Amino acid sequence: MSRRMHVLASVVLVLFTVVAAQAAWIQYFHASALDASDINPRNNVSNTKYQRGEILASDGTVLAESVPTSSTANPWRRVYPQGQLFSGVVGFSSSVYTQWGLEAQYNSSLTAHAQPAQSLEQVLAPTEAADSVTLTLEPKLQRIAQLALAGRDGSVVALDPKTGDVLAMYSNPTYSPTPFASTSTSVQEAAWKLGNTKDKEGFAPLGLLATHQTFFPGSTFKVITTAGIVRYQPSLMNKYYTPMVYTALPDTNKLLYNDGDSSCGGTVLQMLPASCDPGYALLGLALGAKDLSAEANAFGYNEVPPLDLPGVVPSFFPAESNLAANPPFLAYSAIGQEDVSATALENALVAAGVANGGAIMTPHLMSYISAPDGAVVTRFKDSVWKDPLTKAQAAQIVPLMHDVVLNGTAYTVGFLPADDVAAKTGTAQVGNNLLNDTDDWMIAFAPASDPTVAVAVSVPYQSYSATGAVIAGPIVKCIIEGALAIQAKLPASGTSSTCPG
């Protein structure tokens, strides 16, 4: 009899252990996955059946919230007070299409969930509520980006190079998030169809250009080529090239001309500010496939940047083996053309890395998450993502980019002397005459002596006569003026009458 009781007790103990383990797995280890699952009914009706947490800008501006209705079937309605201004980043919460953007990224926090017990009663009957997410985005700077793009397809990314805070991230085309919070399925379906309809340049409103699309970076990539020289073959900094209009490339009869068929040459000191295409093509050949590829990867190419936003894509730089086997391919890659492609986010990180002494901080949109009582649940901890340069190496590139503004291709932009801007222009030939012919870029940071903002602007598919300085330059100028004004607690429109307020 005692043996049978012992066996029974063992079986009960095993079953109890299994139940306890399963409960722990479901409620602790697997809880986040279940919360985020598309088959979780709460995720499919969260914008009408339950109150979601707020999404707030850095200054407390409400970007998304749930407001009560008089309907018992749908007691809550998700609203987006800033509309299209933040929709590319904030996204939406839909009963048909679930979540998009930051609404998806932080869905488990924004959805009602068990709160820490404050009493024995709450231990026995846990209370549920949603947390709020406060972002790093500056609404005034976001508005400047929207107005400066003036409806053109393109994107703006502004970062704090010292922390990785995303200060502004805006793209055209964009969309209204309001229809996605409708209780009408047909309204949501129409909004989804419109959001996925491409414009004449092939861009759909729901595809955030800043993080979801890549373009030829053109001469902005010369910053990385210069970084590769500084890091791996510093003797090339003093290599002198006789001024030339074009250069012949090995293994081909193709000639690489400078922009506008103008003559350029000298050392890196002269050629980066002037953005000398044939000179930098030859520098790329001298640097070699191994070192150029290594430095591109060190800056984050061929890797998804760890931004807390769904759908971020990697920028692309060709494999070392492909470049080594094809010298002309290597030459064109050194000036940001051929198969090289970058997102605006990646190019902003390049500028931020040089600005921050060679350390690229992890980019992030979330500043902190707070409970219903205001207590901070999670705060983002700054961290280094990449170390493409040492502080001494980065310090060699800063004055070269500063000279781009003082004496080089960005001179005509008219940056305010007090802003102390360092920059690099980029004008990449697309070669598609059915659309337009250039992707126009500028990357920059300021003040050069102690940078607090780094910017990338991309405006694709412009006319053949367009340039990064002419198209992207004025946008960068306004973003930098606005960012510095906000940091100094001045009117966000800065001090230039040419920039939108």
Notes on the protein architecture:
With 501 residues, the chain is an alpha+beta fold. It has a domain at 211-365 and 384-487: DD-peptidase/beta-lactamase superfamily (Beta-lactamase). It has a six-stranded mixed sheet, with no helix packed on it. A hairpin with a 6-residue loop joins strand 20 (438-446) and strand 21. The N and C termini lie far apart (88 Å).
Write a short abstract of this structure:
The chain is an alpha+beta fold.
Structural descriptors:
single chain, Beta-lactamase, 21 strands, 501 residues
What is this structure's SSE topology?
Blueprint: H1 2-29, H2 31-36, H3 41-45, E1 55-56, E2 62-68, E3 76-79, H4 84-90, E4 92-94, E5 98-100, H5 102-105, H6 107-110, E6 113-114, H7 120-124, E7 128-129, E8 132-135, H8 139-149, E9 154-159, E10 166-172, H9 185-195, H10 209-212, H11 222-232, E11 241-244, E12 246-248, E13 255-257, E14 264-266, H12 268-274, H13 277-287, H14 289-298, H15 320-324, H16 327-333, H17 344-355, E15 360-361, E16 366-370, E17 376-379, E18 384-386, H18 391-406, E19 422-429, E20 438-446, E21 453-462, H19 468-471, H20 473-487
Parallel strand pairs: 1-8
Antiparallel strand pairs: 1-2, 2-3, 4-5, 6-7, 8-16, 9-10, 9-21, 11-14, 12-13, 15-18, 16-17, 19-20, 20-21
Helix pairs in contact: 8-20, 11-13, 11-14, 11-18, 12-18, 13-16
